[in-house]
Design brief:
The chain has eleven helices and 13 strands. It is an alpha/beta fold. Strands 5-4-1-6-11-8-12-10-9 form a nine-stranded mixed beta sheet. Strand 9 and strand 10 form a beta hairpin. The radius of gyration is 20 Å and the shape is globular. Bound molecules: 1-O-phosphono-alpha-D-glucopyranose. The site of 1-O-phosphono-alpha-D-glucopyranose has 13 residues, from strand 11 and helix 9.
Length: about 290
Amino acid sequence: MTVKKCLFPVAGLGTRFLPVTKEIAKEMLPLVNRPIISYGVEEALASGCEDIVMITGRTKRSIENYFDRSFELEDILRKRGKLELYYKMIHISEMAEILYIRQREPLGLGHAVLCGETVCKDDYFGVILPDDVFIDDVPVLSQLISVHERLGGSVVALEHVKPKDISRYGIAAGDETEPGIFRLTDMVEKPKIQDAPSEYAIMGRYVLSPKIFPLLHTQQAGAGGEIQLTDAIRELMKTEPVWGVVYKGRRFDCGTQKGWLRANIQLALEDDELRDVVLEIVNGNK
Ligand code: G1P
């Protein structure tokens, strides 16, 4: 019943961050002292996943390189006696078993998940959208996995959002069977406010049934002309339970420049070594 594989769709072009993302994968942008992607990978591992499956694109080699050994760098660090950094670099390349699959065309999140079919088709699997960074005591993916282990079926993370933000997300509705847990009956990708079934938005964490794959195969393009995961999950609800869990924790939206900047400032303020720099700047005494 447990979830051992976690899929990361990371093929997106990162147009919101251009020109920076012309050459750098947006997942490699720093969030304080490590790339955004490493927060998601650490969350998957802390949630009990062992195999990480990245759905990448041609501009994302830096992600593969980041999680690989760098013998030249390690050699230099060792020779210079910088052993702490040396072991840190080795740790990054050993922290997970990572598989890379290319998404050859940018056809949407549903299509990206479908690219993971060969690896994930036998069991329930996790999906992490690394733009949504969660900082919490209990990793959000593990909150979803607990519900899957207890109730079966697929699970998505939900957050109550303001009406003005509804059209940015997949919106889900259902019956609250226990506090913060909904048996979902409807799901719409980026609806207009008047068409939204609720004010609960799907945030970037999922536990999905392998039965999602046949549904994705036949899924027509939806919102934005893309093959939407949300549309396939709505189909899945007809045959299997899909739960929505109002997650506990803090979310940072690192998919927009403002959100990314906010996350960096907030986390720097919480870092003993960086707090003073931020405070000096905001208080104007440089
Ligand atoms: C994707 C999903 C959407 C979800 C969102 C969470 O949208 O399609 O349902 O609410 O992630 O961040 P995207 O942000 O890729 O447009």
